[in-house]
Design goal:
Spore Coat Polysaccharide Biosynthesis Protein SpsA, Chain A, 11 helices, about 45% helix, globular
Length: about 260
């Protein structure tokens, strides 16, 4: 593992029309100690040709072609083949500002933080800033607070099960953050860096119905039962104080808690 090297993990599935923009944004980083692993997740378009062009252009780009297994599998595969001390996932249709790596590595170098991320702006079918509340662990239990593109240490990743390969319908990022972070973790948002998050009309986030989303959230609660049991009072307080905890999720948590208590 190379000290201070950032391994940028770029899974792609039929994103050949957008992949170049993602790779250009990595190539243009002011922080130059990086490697970029492009994981072709069984694409049937011209993604491979785009990736190979960049492998020829700069040896810091590395290309892997694997059978389709979903974004979580592709990320886990890429990380397992990486050599850097830091990991930055980047979807094949998104891009980052030129100072993204420099600023996040600088913040993480203090050893104080577990995760560093920046402002997120949507572009494509939908534009505008992705507004999120200030990070608090109990808020993370209610909703995902970060896009997938945030910097963390490989050593911390190795303490988790990795990205869940069972969450193929979505919310795998949130599931991973709950494995990576705990109530004592410190997270930093750096305002002068940016992830540009492409919204397409065929994006998975557009396809997830309210029913599917509720099902995935219930699965996350089941996967982290001990954490949710411990923090249920905080979530109830959050609901009463801010009225933004979804009532359906709160009721599910309450039923789960009562059922567990009755089984004692």
């Amino acid at each position: 593992m190379v000290k201070d090297t950032v391994s940028v993990i770029v899974p792609c599935y039929n994103q050949g029309d957008f992949l170049k923009e993602a790779l250009v944004s990595v190539y243009n980083q002011t922080y130059t100690n990086w490697e970029c692993l492009i994981i072709n997740d069984g694409s049937t378009d011209h993604s491979e040709a785009v990736a190979q062009d960049w492998v020829k252009k700069d040896p810091r780009f590395k290309y892997f072609n694997i059978p389709n297994g979903g974004v979580s599998h592709a990320r886990n595969f890429g990380i397992s083949h990486s050599t850097g001390a830091y990991i930055l996932p980047l979807d094949g249709d998104d891009k980052i500002s030129p100072n993204f790596l420099e600023e996040t590595v600088k913040a993480m170098a203090s050893g104080e933080f577990t995760l560093a991320y920046g402002t997120t702006r949507r572009f494509g079918a939908e534009t505008g800033k992705w507004a999120t509340r200030a990070y608090k662990y109990k808020r993370l239990l209610h909703q995902n607070m970060f896009a997938c593109t945030a910097l963390y240490r490989r050593s911390d990743y190795d303490k988790t099960p990795g990205y869940s390969e069972f969450m193929k319908e979505g919310l795998e990022d949130w599931e991973f953050w709950l494995n990576l972070l705990n109530e004592n973790s410190k997270v930093i948002k750096i305002k002068n860096i940016c992830l540009y998050y492409r919204r397409k009309t065929d994006s998975r986030s557009y396809e997830i119905s309210k029913m599917q989303e509720a099902k995935l959230k219930r699965q996350i609660v089941k996967n982290h039962q001990e954490i949710y049991d411990r923090h249920l009072p905080d979530l109830i307080t959050l609901y009463h104080e801010h009225a933004y905890l979804e009532r359906s999720l709160l009721l599910f948590l309450a039923r789960h808690f009562v059922h567990k208590w009755l089984r004692r």
